[in-house]
Specification:
By secondary structure, the protein is of the alpha/beta class. The chain folds into two domains: 4-183 and 277-350, 3-Layer(aba) Sandwich (Rossmann fold); 189-269, Rna Polymerase Sigma Factor, Chain: A (Orthogonal Bundle), CATH 1.10.1740. The chain is 29% helix and 17% strand. The chain is built from ten helices and ten strands. α4 runs antiparallel to α5 (218-230) and α4 (188-202) runs antiparallel to α8. The longest helix is centred in the middle third of the chain and has 15 residues, at 129-143. It is globular and about 60 Å long. Keywords: Hydrolase, Signal, Transferase.
Amino acid sequence: MFNRMISGVASAILLTVSPLTHAASSLPTPTEADWTAKGFSFNSGEKLKDVRIHYITLGDKNKPAVLLLHGTNQPLSALLAPGFAGELFGPGQALDASKYFIIIPEGIGSGKSSKPSDGLRMAFPHYDYDDMVTAQYRLIKEGLGISHLRLVMGYSMGGMQTWLWGEKYPGMMDALVPMASQPNELSGRNWMLRRMLIESIKGDPAWAEGNYQQQPPTLKTANIMFSIATTGGTLAYQHKAPTRALADKLVDARLAAPVTADANDFIYIWGSSANYNAMPGLNRITAPMLIINSADDERNPVETGILQSELPKIKKAELLLIPASAETSGHGTMMQAKFYNKKLQTFLAETAKP
């Protein structure tokens, strides 16, 4: 026990990922692929003959495998950006891509994986985080032929899925690193604002019960409102916008950005968190766990004390709580791996198998 808190592929076609800008030329070239899960049954009771799982990989498949899981509506390119990959994937770094086989799948409902906007719209099966984890597991086992993972690590939605991975497949990995997440069910302000995000889009007449011809205007404003209201990073926001004029400039920049999301996809993916609750299964987690959160994360407010009270239920777990500062960005702090890269490296050394 070391519970403590620290402040401070057979069917796939591989393609070179030229559209994705990765962190440095010293890294292996990312490749992307699709794998199809046949006969997929969802927890809702609905089924699809084929579920497409899109993913990218870096490194040699014969090396120890690391599974990285993205956040809600987060493009995979974010996990290849200098602030993340540039701090983690390079030579001698924690997830050195010459030593590990890094797998980054797109969850059901995201990117190039199967999603409502492919054609079914609101007739697409309703999925949840557990369904996403099942699809990821099938990709790893059936698609890539990998029987064991060195690490499962995820951010936000991917962090919550990391908790589920530890419970559903406790012998599958050597270590777990959930980031910007907690094991408790969605509740309080976090769920209330997710619910309002969904209701705002559904309440827009242009949504037309999901049969819109153009993206409903509310999609953009609701998303911006949700992001500003729930991300946190209070000190950083005040540092960037100490006057109303500068605050307006930040808002204007967001309003001017093009809409890249689809409203139905948006409703589905935010709704997929509704029944998330890893609390009842915490005692099933056997892999050592490093939990990384930020003190200024408004979606997972530290003042609730929920996580600290649950730590004793986990066999081997420690919490790295990154202090708030003008450099942190609340829920988005995890995309700046400089705040935890050294601790992650130490954790992996401690959990290495002899």
